[in-house]
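Help! Submission page says 'invalid entity' but I think these are all valid:
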Amino acid sequence: MNVYATEYKEDYGKAVELIDVEAGYKDIPVLKNVNLSVDLGRKIAIMGRSGTGKTTLLKVIAGLLKPWRGEVKIFDEDIYLNGRRLDGKIAYIPQNIGLIGGETVLYNVLMAKASRKPVNFLTGIWDKEDIRRAKEILDSVGLGDKILERVDRLSGGEGQRVAIARAMFQEAGVILADEPVSNLDFDTAEKILEILTKLSEEGVSIIAIMHDRHLAVKYFDEIYVMEDGSLVRRA
Amino acid sequence: MRILTISTAISIAIAASLGLLTPNVWIQAAKNLATFSTYLGIDTSLVYEATIVAWETLVMSVFGVSVGTILSYILSPLATPVISSTPISMPIRTLANSIRAIPAIFWAIFFVILVGPGPKAGALALAVYTTGYLTKFFYETLESSDIELVNSLRVMGLKGILLASALYTNMRKQVISNIFFMLEYNIRSAAILGFVGAGGVGYYILQYISLLDYVAVTTYILITILFVIAIDMISYGIRSRI
């Protein structure tokens, strides 16, 4: 169970809140006056043509790109206020999934606690409880029989599930996924989205870039379209 | 193809300026080689002694690589702007460049002065020299990491040595390849370090050269080459399993 979704649920108003955010690269503006409010356990799909700023939006929320102006609040805390803080409340799954190649599924999941348990990570010696929990999570995403498989030998859908399992083990309150189902067949894409839906029911907020309108309508609570750097909500 | 054309043009131009395109040079070289080859051979009575000395050289090299790997593993993240910051990374890079700029044999002289002649000095010289090289190899490896992977790890809260450790793991084939390259390099370097009294096979080669005993010299060099080939085979075996 997720700490942000359970223990602190009543303490946090919003999981993610963007207020009048403007951001870009060097002097090229990409996001223009973006406002977004995401409640705990909500699933938000971001759609739009290529180059409109969808990935930039995720990077700003993830704490990777400081906005020129505006506020980015994660669980009511402005993450850019006193220097950038990346403390594991968010999990970011990039387009290429971002797993450690050549390593096992279990390693990739356990490493989500590297910042909280640095000695365990550097020595590779983990507590029994951590391993048990990681296996439990992998079971829940249907990878219980592949824990010792190398991630570079997995299919695209399995790799995506490892990334989600890692976010679950990290106990992230917000999952940002950049095109999580773009390269998957329809059935596999649905399985991934069903796992994300189950997570959102536990209180985890999901913000995902989607291209398939049908899947977005079926699985997400709200759909926003990025148009020329601005975020427009669609019914 | 353009690189090949440019390299060919440069090679021909410099060879001409050095007089290497004159046929008489090569005719004389062939005659000299024929004369010199009569001095070469293998002295089987020296094989055991040469193997022991080559083993000592290998031990010095392994020490240099293991200490160099530890220091580089820590220094390289500091030298990588994506993990560290420019005010920290620039001095570390300058330090690594400075270490590399001084040939291993000068480091050997330095350590012979500090700790006296023998394998101790050679091992320390190789440790410092390896640190200079591996730091550069490792920070280049870290810098070539996929930026999206770096981003997802940073969002997870990884930074400093933790982030570097994850990236090293992701690029471990290259990291291990670099370590074995330095091991081979150190064995070749260690063969020379003995010239200044820093232990290893070089000391014996120098003695036999001064006695004009080229058969003994050839024996020592051949055993050293066999060690390098063995290291290369072990390296290939390990890398192919990763």
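Support: the input was valid. A stray whitespace character was the problem, and the output above is from the cleaned input. The first helix of chain A runs from residue 54 to 62.
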